[in-house]
Amino acid sequence: MQSELGGLFYEMAIRDHVRMEVLIPKAAELQRVDAELSQLERIIQSENPTAGGECPSCGAVYARGAAFCAQCAHPLR
Fold first, then answer.
1. How far apart are CA 9 and CA 24, in angstroms?
2. Minimal CA–CA distance to 2: which of 40, 23, 30, 28?
3. What does each C-alpha distance from 38 to 31, 42, 45, 69 come to in angstroms?
4. pTM over 0.70
5. How far is CA 56 from CA 39, 51, 75, in A?
């Protein structure tokens, strides 16, 4: 997307016909995708900080601080 936006701007600039109404929506879409990618990278790097672990009885993931498994009601503490 960056290459496409840069190429589009370059082509407009060499023709001395830069159209901001075309460039701005493309830049906004690139910014949205970049923000989404950054969020996904943070989630991957954090290794799901809201998870407390896996239930020893059924293997379901439970939230940090949970006293019982939401799937099988096995005590977790």
1. 11
2. 30
3. 10, 6, 11, 32
4. no
5. 31, 14, 9
